[in-house]
Amino acid sequence: MNTRLTGGHPMEAHAGFVTPEGAAWLASSASHQRSTLALWESRPTAPVVLPCGKAFDVVSVPAVFGRRMLDRLWEQGPGSGPVATYRGRMLIFAAPGTAQRLPSLLAWEEWGTAMPTPLCHGSGDAVTVPAPASAPGGGASGARWLVAPDTRHPWLPGPEVVLWAAVQAARAAVRISIFPPPDQDAKVYDVSRRR
Fold this sequence. Notes:
Blueprint: H1 10-14, H2 20-27, H3 33-42, E1 48-51, E2 57-62, H4 63-75, E3 83-86, E4 89-94, H5 98-108, E5 119-121, E6 126-129, E7 144-147, H6 159-173
Antiparallel strand pairs: 1-6, 2-4, 2-5, 3-4, 3-7
Helix pairs in contact: 4-6, 5-6
């Protein structure tokens, strides 16, 4: 089963537990894959720190903004790959190379300070990944899967798709009118009777 759904919301079908194939995919990012899998076999609720850049990059955004991005991805876009939460942030797993490219795309879009700037984790970075059997509510670590990996080759959004979701979420969050609010103290003159 692929994490790209044709209908429904990802939270309904993919929340919770990672399949053995998904765990193998996550472990493929580690330099010691077998020891990572052995750790999860002996302690299935243990989160682990994994390097980014090989199997995946991670885009980290505040949870509320991330939820808006996910809603756009699933309601108007192609869906998402694996997604987790950790310490009040949403971790969107993306294609390798996304962390390197996304900041320049955000700069091109003139991404300002009105919206949260995504933190991009790529080659040379590492992230805490929820356990395959993450505890309800994330347990002591606060890490849990919203969209759990379920295959050895999950679909991962690239930088353009993540940018699109961020821009769509920002537009929905900030409604800017091209007309300024009326000035309540302004004098109004009837100019239709000019001679």
